[in-house]
Amino acid sequence: FGRGAEVPCALGISNEFVVLLDLGAKEVVFNCFTGDVIGWSADGAALRIYHGRGDHVSLRAGPGDGGGGAEEVKEI
User: Fold this and answer.
1) Where are the domains of the chain?
2) What is the reported pTM?
3) CB within 8 Å of 42: residues ≥ 6 apart
4) 9 SS3 class
5) Share in percent of the chain as helix, strand, coil (round to 5)
6) What is the DSSP string of 49-69?
7) pLDDT at 74
8) Of 27, 51, 53, 56, which one's alpha carbon is 20 to 30 angstroms from that of 11?
9) Is 36 helix (H, G, I), strand (E, B) or coil?
10) Which domain of life is it from (predicted)?
């Protein structure tokens, strides 16, 4: 996916990885080790996860999602 693309995704977090999955295409959109996460910020239904050397991925709950299902992702 190119920079700035918005894709409906599912967020997965484990002890080792943070992943974003495009369930429709059955592809991993983003992944990193949890140890590479350097911080995050939240604003309402939006979340930014900072990783590596300050790069970040922006997430927000989709319309009508209620925060429990698909997420929109935008990698900057």
Assistant:
1) 6-75
2) 0.72
3) 48
4) strand
5) 5, 60, 35
6) EEETTTEEEEEEEPTT-TTSS
7) 52
8) 53
9) helix
10) Eukaryota
